[in-house]
Write a structure and sequence with these properties.
Order of helices and strands: HHH
Shape: elongated
Distance between the termini: 39 Å
Structural class: mainly alpha
Radius of gyration: 15 Å
Length: 75
């Protein structure tokens, strides 16, 4: 059975990485989580942007756990 690979459109906010090296992709997701964490810590508590960054951070952690559970447990 020869299926064509589905390529997502270019209108997505984040680029979709080809799945070829799980540890590399997991490291990139983890690095993005760390950047978001630092951004949240640098903002004062009264800003409404904290909620948006926090939601994005939770989404990234979920993506990391679903993509590579072993890597997520190590970190």
């Amino acid at each position: 059975m020869n299926r064509k690979r589905f390529y997502p459109n270019n209108r997505r906010s984040k680029p979709v990485l080809p799945i070829n090296d799980n540890s590399l992709i997991s490291q990139e997701i983890f690095d993005e989580c760390e950047k978001l964490k630092q951004k949240i810590l640098s903002l004062s508590n009264g800003k409404s942007e904290i909620w948006l960054y926090r939601q994005e951070l939770l989404d990234q952690y979920n993506q990391l756990i679903l993509f590579n559970l072993d890597y997520a447990i190590e970190k």
